[in-house]
From TrEMBL:
One family name in Pfam for this protein: Glycos_transf_2
Record-linked SUPFAM superfamilies: Nucleotide-diphospho-sugar transferases (SSF53448)
Membership in a protein family: Belongs to the glycosyltransferase 2 family.
Keywords: Glycosyltransferase, Transferase
Source species of the chain: Stenotrophomonas maltophilia
PANTHER family: GALACTOFURANOSYLTRANSFERASE GLFT2, RHAMNOSYLTRANSFERASE WBBL
The protein's name in its UniProt record: Glycosyl transferase
Length: 387
């Protein structure tokens, strides 16, 4: 029974094949906290051709109480998305979420997205991720370092604690995971089917919503893991060496000739770069405080068995002044002076390191050995282990 005042959200996951990743996305959606909203999950299967997959998926959804619909024929992403948008409007939901199927959601995603959506004149909210064009947090290898439900929950909680319900105005939303008020859908309309099998339809919709007076925003206090084109590769929309559909980009160029200039101005404003740096700095610092950190002095970092531990690699005797901390594929350049470096690092993380590995015997190594005498170890070889 719905709780008075709690909004209803129809969370739509669009599917085309994807046997390898769709079940995980559904399970992840089902574990989302419903304290702030009543969330129903709808799987929109766009006539997946993989033998037996639709039957398997239907049974999977039925066992978990998830709504499932398979189109009689392949409609393409825009029309499939429209089924979700129209269903949300027809059945009286307050919001609709349009999402890819190669994702993992944090438990508190909807609460954070809703808080962002309540900012003045917001029409749509896109989540932050690791593979969503401009709105990606730079990461060395997301599928290796971030593809874990517990990591997704932790990363989202870290960003939510730092950014709160702040929003960033962006040129266009991305429907890998986007929250839209059904009131906005009623006024702006649905996705334009002229975009065929998909790509750029959400850009067109975003710009139409902007023309109607709504803001298009990113919620930096959120994080959703995205495999990156997994669902679109399975659908045959793009090849492994392509990132979009040129014909659909041409439609955007014709309809909105200033759009590329606006995107360029947004990028060159530095707002996004500053937000990236701020987010990664907070993530690395929070991880160091919670999980600890190690320091390596030498040319080769030690074997990383604990990815939750932040690692700092220092070149011997200031061969260069580059001081970089890494955590689960995130890289942060630490702006610390070489003088009293040990104290500076301790101050940044507000704690002692777990271990200091000294693959060198120069002045820097000696200073750090004295500073962290209880955890510093001199290594006799520059290689962590014998091969």
């Amino acid at each position: 029974m719905p709780v008075m005042g709690r909004p209803r959200i129809l969370h739509c996951i669009t599917v085309y094949n994807g046997r390898a990743f769709v079940p995980a996305a559904i399970e992840s959606a089902l574990r989302m906290d419903q304290q702030d909203a009543e969330i129903d999950v709808l799987i929109l299967d766009d006539a997946s051709p993989e033998p037996g997959w639709s039957e398997e998926l239907s049974a999977f959804c039925r066992e978990r109480g998830v709504m499932y619909y398979r189109t009689p024929r392949n409609l393409g992403i825009p029309r499939n998305v429209n089924l979700g948008m129209l269903t949300a409007v027809k059945r009286g939901y307050d919001y609709v979420v349009i999402s890819n199927s190669d994702v993992l959601y944090p438990r508190d995603l909807m609460g954070q997205m809703l808080r962002a959506s309540r900012q003045k004149n917001v029409g749509s909210v896109t989540a932050w991720s690791n593979n969503v064009s401009l709105y990606s947090l730079p990461n060395e290898d997301p599928n290796r370092f971030l593809h874990d439900q517990n990591v997704v929950d932790w990363l989202h909680a870290s960003l939510a604690g730092h950014f709160g319900d702040a929003v960033m105005d962006i040129p266009a939303g991305i429907s890998f995971c986007i929250l839209i008020s059904t009131e906005v859908v009623r006024k702006v309309g649905i996705m334009d089917p002229c975009f065929g099998r998909g790509y750029c339809e959400e850009t067109d919709w975003s710009l139409r919503s902007l023309a109607a007076g709504y803001r298009i925003v990113l919620a930096p206090g959120t994080y959703v893991f995205h495999h990156g084109r997994g669902s679109n590769l399975d659908a045959g929309l793009v090849s492994s060496d392509a990132t979009t559909v040129p014909a659909n980009e041409a439609i955007i160029d014709l309809r909105y000739p200033q759009f590329r200039t606006q995107v360029g101005a947004f990028v060159h404003s530095g707002v996004l770069a500053k937000a990236h740096e701020d987010a990664i700095s907070h993530v690395v610092r929070s991880a160091g405080k919670q999980f600890g950190y190690s320091i390596d002095v030498g040319w080769i970092a030690r074997d990383r068995r604990n990815e939750d531990e932040v690692n700092i690699l220092l070149s011997p005797d200031a061969a260069n002044d580059h001081i970089q901390a890494t955590f689960r594929g995130f890289r942060l350049d630490l702006k610390l002076g070489r003088k009293n470096l040990g104290q500076e690092i301790r101050k940044f993380f507000d704690k002692e390191p777990n271990i200091v590995n000294l693959y060198d015997t120069g002045a820097l190594a000696s200073a750090l050995k004295a500073e962290f005498s209880g955890v510093a170890t001199t290594r006799t070889t520059n290689y962590p282990e014998k091969v």
